Amino acid sequence: MKLDVIKLDGGKAGSVDLGEDIFGLEPRADILQRVVRWQRNKAQAGTHKVKTRSEVSYSTKKIYRQKGTGGARHGARSAPIFRKGGIYKGPTPRSHAHDLPKKVRALGLKHALSAKMAAGELVIIDIADSTGKTAALAKQVRDLGWKRTLIIDGAEVNAEFAKAARNIEGLDVLPSMGANVYDILKRDTLVLTKAGVEALEARLK
Questions:
Q1: Between β-strands 12-17 and 122-125, what pairing exists: parallel, antiparallel or unpaired?
Q2: pLDDT of residue 11
Q3: The domain containing residue 6 runs over which residues?
Q4: DSSP SS3 for 162
Q5: Within this chain, do residues 66 and 146 fall inside the same structural domain, yes or no?
Q6: What percent of the chain has pLDDT over 70?
């Protein structure tokens, strides 16, 4: 399938052939959900922690004698049954990550790209280049009507372009190896450079 290529100033720059096996799939929500859940779980800090019975600051003295009180048998006030005692089976630091086959991850990226293509939210530009001036790039982005936008370049992002883009709200730039399902789906517009298209097709073959 062919898609027109534009320049950052809005001018035309020919067209590019996109592979049907990457950009022409019927998007499957179940695969996208699996990959996004895998990504978000892997990124979760897992630093939640409560104090157990051995960690709360309390005396370990037996609170009253074992027999003769008419009450239940108790040892220390740090027991979970008491207010301000330790928490029983509370959360502890752990990893929330789980495994997902590489083939499913690659398929998820293909379906994310295809979803943007099907929705008409995919734009191809010839090159992501800039003088390094944020104001000039911001005007180009505004004129093109991009709001929440992700730009994916080739193996490396142009340093001057990254410098100009980093202070523009709603604009993010990634190299091709950083392309991922979550970042693609949460933006309104996906912009690929010609080098980005080639790198993604090489990565997903």
A1: unpaired
A2: 87
A3: 2-45+97-204
A4: helix
A5: no
A6: 100
